[in-house]
Design brief:
heterodimer; A: 115 residues; mainly alpha; 5 helices; 79% helix; B: 87 residues; 3 helices; flat
Amino acid sequence: MEPVASILIVAGAVLALLAAFGLQRFDDVFARMHSATKPATLGLILILSGAAFMLPVPGAVAKLLLVVMLQFTTAPIAAHLVGRAAFRTGQELSRDTMVVEEAEYISTHPKLIEE
Amino acid sequence: MIEVATTIAFALLGVAALLCVVRLVRGEGLADRIVALDTLLLMVVSGLAVQAAITGEDTYLDVMVVAALLAFTGTAMVANFIERRGS
């Protein structure tokens, strides 16, 4: 099982690095939050499943599963709380974040508006 | 094989944590900093998991549960604080 665990752990670490890169590259809190929650959570899940292959202790998988479930349920809640707080207190919103793709489509298809 | 993988993983996680710290210091507002801190704690939990995979000890797992819980409570509390302070 070692090769599987190795691949999972390295893949998880790469995802964690990508999340950190996103934290640097994106323009405002809302875009950064997106990179801080999704790839980081997936990276953690990959690393934990890699670790599950390497731990011979019986109760280990249950604890790892507990951490995964905890992260899975709390990450969206935490992101929602921070996003709401940032938006209500007037954190500046980057122009690139405010893209509504449907708006352009509707403006080029006037028939859609009349209905 | 696992030794090489864990070494690579530690190096990548280290760079990732460093980038989180850079964002934590640069910030732009309290919300940015708390997002960076949350991600940093996630990297710590990942590092503990890698360490547990190397040593095969399950003591690290309890620490991971506590760290994951603390990351959430801290983020939720600071978000609440930002909202009430209003800036």
